[in-house]
Amino acid sequence: MYCLKAIVIGAGIGGLTTGIALQKAGYQVEIYDRVRELRPIGSGISLWSNGVKVLNHLGLGEKLAAIGGQMNYMEYRHLSGNILNHISLQPLIDAVGQRPYPVARRDLQNVLLEAFQSVGGKLTLGSKCIGVIEGFSDVTAKFEDGSVAKGDVLVAADGIRSLLRQYVLNESIEPKYAGYVNWNGLVPMSSALAPVDTWSIYVGEHKRASVMPVSGDRFYFFFDVSLSQGTVNDCTNYKQELKHHFQGWAESVQLLINQIEPETVARLEINDVGPLTKLVKGRVALLGDAAHATCPDLGQGGCQAIEDGWVLANYLISTNLSVPDALRRYEAERKVRTTEIVNKARNRAEVIHGKDPEITEQWYQQLSQESPLDVTKAIAKIISGGPLH
């Protein structure tokens, strides 16, 4: 019996999840990535329940729970430290049937990589895909070193600066700067920084400072500051930068800045991509950030890549007209979902980071008046739009 073969370009969250799902569905899967060593971009990620459910379905529930932080509450605080809103996440968990997990990106990547290789998946690093050739019944990936890989379907999960996006769209789409810079990393967990089971978010001056629990008695932290594009990125100056931007903020924020180790911190200019007019062309499908990079302000970027992988694999094994037909069904379903997420995340980024200062001030007022149940209902609505309800 002929075993269908999938070529996946990109070994990030979306590429690895897709590889696991297809491998479990009976495909032979080869993943290629241009990097010589897998090093995740950013230090942590909030996996909301829609992403967790897909990974549970792929058999990773116990391992995911082991690396996930115990996050029972969210709290918003004014830059001074005064509490604006305290939100129990139990109503959310009851509504959607699954706890969310903040995780360190490297921990998640290790779980996904181990799972992919344990089901027979093949990973090749140091292979930069530079082009695609489609035949009548197959597709070939061309690599910079002159090598090729041929399969029945090609998944372009090669990130926000995807080289294969132009092939699918017949035009070049560049990432769009969201107007702010994000510093993030990991620090030892301490109740002096925040309650250890709580996602704490300080807001003010169109900025954010935040910590959330991950496994290993660590907090994942991030700082957001609205800055013009192209500001100097010098890790030796991170502490001074942050002390300048967050001067006068609460004592716990100052303590966090003092505790960070600059050489382990990621500093990212936040961009997004999309919504795109199309996600597939023939036997090639865009997936994850290549298809719909989102601002991280909804915490749905990784979850949407995970959903992509599940939906793509499901159509490839549940429809048998042709591979291009299955990909068109994937495109039709995912365009609706991801267009909404990209737009919502961009709008929220603009509200949080002061694109219109008056609207941001109104948001600060809303935070102090909003019912905690309204907050969890809004999050549950986003989660419930996923493929596993």
Question: What report would you give on this structure?
Answer:
This protein has 389 residues and is α/β, with parallel strands linked by helices. The protein has one domain: FAD/NAD(P)-binding domain (3-Layer(bba) Sandwich). 39% of the residues lie in helices and 26% in strands. The chain has twelve helices and 18 strands. The chain has helices at residues 13-24, 49-67, 90-96, 105-118, 165-169, 238-245, 251-259, 289-292, 301-318, 323-352, 357-369, 372-383, and strands at residues 5-9, 28-32, 44-47, 73-78, 83-88, 101-104, 122-124, 129-134, 139-143, 148-151, 153-156, 176-188, 198-204, 207-214, 218-226, 266-272, 280-281, 284-286. Helix 1 (13-24) runs parallel beside helix 9 (301-318) and helix 9 (301-318) packs antiparallel against helix 10.
Helices and strands in order, then pairings?
Layout: E1 5-9, H1 13-24, E2 28-32, E3 44-47, H2 49-67, E4 73-78, E5 83-88, H3 90-96, E6 101-104, H4 105-118, E7 122-124, E8 129-134, E9 139-143, E10 148-151, E11 153-156, H5 165-169, E12 176-188, E13 198-204, E14 207-214, E15 218-226, H6 238-245, H7 251-259, E16 266-272, E17 280-281, E18 284-286, H8 289-292, H9 301-318, H10 323-352, H11 357-369, H12 372-383
Parallel strand pairs: 1-2, 1-11, 2-7, 4-13, 11-18
Antiparallel strand pairs: 3-6, 4-5, 8-9, 9-10, 12-15, 12-16, 13-14, 14-15, 17-18
Helix pairs in contact: 1-4, 1-9, 2-4, 2-9, 3-12, 9-10
